Amino acid sequence: MTITQTVEVPANRRITLELPSQIPTGIGTVTLSFTPLSFIPKMSEAQELELINRNADRLNAEAIDVLSYQDIDL
């Protein structure tokens, strides 16, 4: 399970996490990852299209796989 949430960093640089009740306790370890959005390089529209086109086959295959678990006719 992956949970993603964008938050503002307060002046005291403290963030409190409240996990959903669906996450069982005692499951072992978890990994927290922080990526400041200002550090994510911006792509041009041409770069974004190239990235989408390069990954289109894989993304389509993943979408079909996900839909296969649902009762949806393709």
Describe the structure.
The structure is a single chain. This protein is an all-alpha fold. Helices cover 32% and strands 0% of the residues. It contains 1 helix and no strands. The chain has one helix at 45-68. The longest helix has 24 residues, at 45-68. The radius of gyration is 18 Å and the shape is flat.
Give the uncertain stretches in residue-range form. Answer: none
Strand content: under 5%
Structural class: mainly alpha
Helix share of residues? 25-40%
Helix/strand order, N-terminal first:
H
Give the overall shape, derived from the CA principal axes. flat
Nearest-integer average pLDDT: 83
- From the N-terminal CA to the C-terminal CA, the straight-line distance is 26 Å
* Major pleated sheet: none
Query: What is the number of E strands?
Result: 0
Determine Rg (CA atoms, Å): 18 Å
Number of helices: 1
Q: What is the secondary structure topology, with strand pairs?
A:
Elements: H1 45-68
Question: What tags apply to this protein structure?
Answer:
74 residues; mainly alpha; 32% helix; flat
In short:
With 74 residues, the protein is an all-alpha fold. The protein has one helix at residues 45-68.
